[in-house]
Amino acid sequence: MIAPTLLCIALVCSCHSSAGFSAIPETASPPGPPWTPRRCQKLSFEKLSCCHLNLSSVPTGLDPRLRRLDVSNNMISGMGVVNLRFLEELDVSYNHLQFIHEKAFQNLVQLYNLNLAANKLNDNTANNSKAFQALHRLQILDMSLNGLDHNAVELYLRNMSCLEHLKLAGNTLTKLSSRLFKESWNLRSIDLENNLILDIEEGTFEPLRKLTVLNLAMNNLACICDFKLHGLQFLNLSRNSIEFFITHQNDDVYQLETLDLSYNSILYFPIVPKISHLKYLHLQNNKVGAFGMEMSILEVSSLYTEIHSEIYRKEYDDMSYYDMYSNWKLMPLVHLDLSNNHFTSFPLKTLHHLQSLEALNMSDNCLFNLSLGDTGNDSRGLPHSQPFLSVRYLDLQRNQIQHLSPDFFEALPKIETINLRNNMVNPCAAGNLPDPMRQNITNDTLCVSFAGIRSLKYLDLRENGIKTLFPYTFQHTPLVSLDLSGNKDMRIAKEALAGLQNTLETLSIVGNDMEGSDLSLHCLGALKRLNLSDNQMDILPSTIGCSPLRELDLRNNSFTSLDEWIVDDLLLHLNVMLIGGNPFNCCTTGWLKILNETRVNILDLHQATCLYRLNDSIYTELLSNYAIQCPLEPTTKSTGLNLLIPVVIFVIVVLSLMITVILHESHSATQRIPVLRERHYSTDAIRVNSRDS
User: FRET pair for 327, CA 20 to 30 Å: which of 81, 133, 202, 446?
Assistant: First the structure.
């Protein structure tokens, strides 16, 4: 077990003031009616924008009715008295502000939103902070990117009892003391992202009863040993160096809904509050699963006992034992992200305790063949019932999966979406198996059966090295969307998509290097979106004419023309089309005329090109200008008729020759009859003469 090192650091805050500050005198407004400085934009009588004008000071003599003033992105280094008593919002961000007159804000009695981000307020903090004492109604303060340490922040936040939203991102805070927010007890959200925080003193956030959002991302925190912010709803601890997150297990109710622990060094599942509203847990880019699930559970229980005893100075008792499974049953978790961790097997036995879980991301792990295996026996020696997940969305992309056993899908009775992109999944040939609903697949069968998954609607099989899609692959699986892109040289057999006629709406076959002969599409009566881009197709499948396509993508193929009969069939529903990157023939564009006469929007028509021949040379022209090069354009719609005419002529010629031969034979036969009779008479005469003699 990895024993935690508990290091308690207590630092005393010492406030200091900067010397050498020269007060900026108050600026009197010039007499006369209010005016708008040159190049400033008056968006309304209440709002004025003077940003990006290289101003060296805040303009004076402005309309006193102004409620919003933006002087951001200028060269302002000092701020005098601002006489705008109705002003509610002031933006002085991204300047060079170093000096603020102590009475600069005394007339801004309505100001509730002040943005001072990206200035140089780390200097002269003792004098600058005096101006903030007049901001009694301030609710929103942004002092990000000012190089402030915790001493400076403590000075600026004095007497800020109305402050609700505070941004201190991108400063240089290394610790948070218990005095830091002592006078800002109404805070609802605090952003401390991208500082250098190593330590948080106990009592820093606990007095903030209204605090609901806390962002501590991109700091140097090593662990959270005793989380007890009961009212917090959103906590971002991503991109620190956290190894474990522990909450004391008691019956206190926590309001926490979102916990982001991504991009840390977490080895175990966090020990979250026993009773909470936690719905979204982000654990991506950690080290969870490195020791295996069972070992991890034992380790985290032992870790909890040790830390509990250290913090509360108690011997072992009931509260120092952590039962993760029983606690997870109470957790209303909906979304769990475990991507980019160290899982080698699917933690079904652990996750099935999360009875509300709907979305699970396990992409970018080390998963291989997924099978539930033996579920074991209970205490009575009886086999356990099959565990199952309530998950509807499952992301398994970028693993090394070759096989998903049938019992794996049986454990996901509500699954609607599976992302298997960039694995080694090979769909089984359902037709070769006796019962496509329940197929006997052993661990040696390196294919996955997608037949009979009655809840599955969205399936992503991109970049899996699939070579052949066999007949009836998705039989009795009501897919709405299917992505087969990136499977080089894949062949789709006839009837491969049989069974999807009434459900499939989106089909993507992008970048497969497929030719027209490789694609045999079933008549899909519900298909609305078809993407065939980045292939080598030169003819359209004739069956797409029976689909109510609304979007068709044919970019980067080998089309020289499109069959006008098929285009005619598509016009009833087609709205959007993409055709660029094909070697179209400028002189066989009858199909384009048909499309141009309808409401079909060819999004890339002005980038698409075509080829034409002139003086034995091939030239390129914009497809939209095809008529310039081919004014007498031959139509491609008569292609079928043109092929039929020679056949008819050939048949007529053959029949004519046959008739001629028959007539000739008949005529010859009639001429031979008298000759035979003559010969008959001559023979009889010879016989008579012979008798006489």
Answer: 202
